[in-house]
Amino acid sequence: MQIPSNNNAYWGCLLLLSSLCCFTAAATLQCPTDVIYLESVAPPTLITLKVGNSYLLGPGLFVLANTGEVAADEVLCVTGQDRSGVPAGVTRLVSPLSPLGDNSTQLHFTQYGGLLQVGNLQLQGRAGSSSSGGGGVLIKRSKDGSDDGQAATFVAKLVTFKSNSPRAVANDDDTTASLTFANCAFIDNVYDTWGCDENRGWFCYFLGPPGAAGVTTASNVTFKGSTVFRRNSWGALYAASPVTVTFEGSLLVADNTKQPAYRNAMAFDDLTSTDGAGLFASGAAHLLFLGAAVFRNNTGAGGCGLALRGAKATFQSSRTVQFLANRGSYGPAINSYNASIAFNGPVLVTGNTALWGAGGALYLEFSDVTFNAAATVYNNTLNGCTVDFDDGCAGGAMWIQGSHVTHNELATYQSNVARASSFGGAVAIFPYAFGSKQANSSFTANKMVAFIGNEGPIGGAIYTESDVTFAAGAQFISNSATAQDGSGGVVHVCGNSTLAFGGPVTFRNNSASRGGAVTITPGAWWPNATTTRMVFSGSSSSSSCWMGNTATTAAGGAALRIEAYGSALFGTTAPHNFGSNLAGSGNSAVEQDITVLDKGWFTCNSRSFAGSFSIEGNVCAARCAGKAVCKCPFGQVFVPVQCSCQRIAAASPSPKPSTSPKPSPSPKPCGL
Ligand SMILES: *[C@@H]1O[C@H](CO)[C@@H](O)[C@H](O)[C@H]1NC(C)=O
Ligand SMILES: *[C@@H]1O[C@H](CO)[C@@H](O)[C@H](O)[C@H]1NC(C)=O
Ligand SMILES: *[C@@H]1O[C@H](CO)[C@@H](O)[C@H](O)[C@H]1NC(C)=O
Ligand SMILES: *[C@@H]1O[C@H](CO)[C@@H](O)[C@H](O)[C@H]1NC(C)=O
Ligand SMILES: *[C@@H]1O[C@H](CO)[C@@H](O)[C@H](O)[C@H]1NC(C)=O
Ligand SMILES: *[C@@H]1O[C@H](CO)[C@@H](O)[C@H](O)[C@H]1NC(C)=O
Ligand SMILES: *[C@@H]1O[C@H](CO)[C@@H](O)[C@H](O)[C@H]1NC(C)=O
Ligand SMILES: *[C@@H]1O[C@H](CO)[C@@H](O)[C@H](O)[C@H]1NC(C)=O
Ligand SMILES: *[C@@H]1O[C@H](CO)[C@@H](O)[C@H](O)[C@H]1NC(C)=O
């Protein structure tokens, strides 16, 4: 950007009358109807804006001679050339240069009360130029600490806040101020106030007030129309008090960054957190999204799209909320601590990458996340344990600790990957138990959920030490535990945890070294506990189908592995069918569906079984229960499509020209 010098500045024409009216309360303040028109004749044009006026600026480049100041009962309205729509910026208003010539930053406006209204403008600061920055709007309760008692009213319509530094719009302490942005964009703003120790490059600290390069607020804010935050450095939005920030229309949070020189620079508290390159909310703030929201390609530490600390986020729109290709460490899409998030419309979480840390897309601690509409969690990656001081290191898509995730609608977790020595290709779930602080976790699906093609070293789809419930059926297809001795191709259940199922469940083509689909083991940290379990509800819909799963270790348990003190409780009302599941490698692989190690067991009703099982058909059927080897009854064969033993005749498709559909025994289809 070229910064105009004072020499070629030119005073625009002053037109019209300026008529002032006196108002006593901010609520009744309005822009004067008589408008002063300023034209940029030989740009850039140096102008001074005086309170009490409405200005209309022509197209072109204007430079403020000094910061506009609006106090209680004062009004200042500045409108640029309206090209009836986006992009705003036909009229550019550049922040003043310091009269001292010392490169110090100068604001466009300060506001201590009254009404400041800007429209159809690009409010341009000096970030990225030879100066050290400047530009923006600062709102405070008062100039000198003696509060006038009047809240500020700030209105921006069709304004692009560009290249302001350190903060484009900041309300530091006016808690009852009214901030309204309609069709505004925040682009290339820079809040760059951290420094790093010269000798110890990793030791970084923060200067300046808390905030974000885009909007910092201590009061409610309403964003109307479409809102865009792009390429802001060190945060798009920051709220740290019990305010409500409402996005009434569409929202794009893209390409924002928050990254100190050293990736693990000290983040001493929430005020200086390196999390939240996009939206950051703490102190009981509430972010309310009424329109479509997209969080894309934000980079930094955790929660590059959205970071919550003791805050709340509600996504209300029926349009899909998207978290795409965000990159960072602990939950690049969302990092949430002591917070609650409700998705009342559909969600797509895809292409997010944790380069290190935990949770390829979401990192949750002491938080509740509820999906009340369909969720798709696809192609997220955790690169794994790459540094030795990782705090955790699990969950290709989600890390859930001391937290509760609930799906009340269909969900798909597909092609998520956890690498290196981490756990849980898609999801990793732990209770929180450090010191005196204890909090359980849960993952609960009340509608059908599918886990497809996820992979992780241990627990190809899910690694859990807490309760996981699939109340309405689930499909687990082609997941794999990738470590050389990887366990639980789909789920590795350990610790004090119950993996519970209601509804039909399919395990197909999953693989691991041991426990091709499921491993149940109390684990080293939970020895001799008898609370590590897999439980199928007794309902008639709670069936299961296990086919095509493999364990590369001989006798490793091709479908199910139950280690000492672990257990599986099969309901007896519905069938639990096992087809071909092979354990061992290459040509020596043999049919071996279930392996139960010493002190482990599974039950069908009240009967308990231990040992190795190779079953064709229903493991709990009278003819199979307890038999190490069980084939289909004479005259029947195992039919993969139906995942059950069928009469030989029924195996071949029998055309039925029946006019009346019979409620004949139609076996449940197996798989997708
Ligand atoms: C202002 O900034 C420029 C570029 O960084 C620098 O060369 C100049 O010395 C600075 N001036 C002062 C007074 O700091
Ligand atoms: C902020 O918004 C919330 C929710 O609409 C409202 O309850 C609260 O009173 C507002 N606060 C102020 C200071 O206006
Ligand atoms: C992602 O954001 C960074 C930082 O703003 C930017 O340099 C990069 O070009 C963006 N990548 C894409 C694919 O948009
Ligand atoms: C959790 O957040 C709430 C605000 O939502 C706050 O009052 C509470 O102190 C926080 N608790 C912890 C343990 O951080
Ligand atoms: C998966 O995500 C990565 C990282 O964002 C991206 O480069 C890649 O194209 C995505 N692959 C698919 C198949 O979506
Ligand atoms: C988890 O903790 C919550 C709150 O302490 C409690 O209400 C709930 O019953 C616990 N759940 C389990 C499964 O222990
Ligand atoms: C089985 O799963 C593996 C991944 O473990 C996948 O590569 C393969 O395509 C799947 N095969 C079928 C038939 O689905
Ligand atoms: C194990 O979990 C159950 C509920 O899931 C809980 O009631 C029990 O207290 C836990 N036991 C221990 C020792 O944490
Ligand atoms: C677990 O049980 C075994 C015997 O079965 C015993 O040797 C061991 O000490 C027990 N471990 C704990 C932690 O109780």
UniProtKB/TrEMBL annotation:
Keyword terms of this UniProt record: Signal
Region (Disordered): 650-672
Highest taxon, organism lineage: Eukaryota
Biased composition (Pro residues): 654-672
Signal peptide start-end: 1-26
Name this protein carries in UniProt: Right handed beta helix domain-containing protein
Organism, scientific name: Tetradesmus obliquus (Green alga)
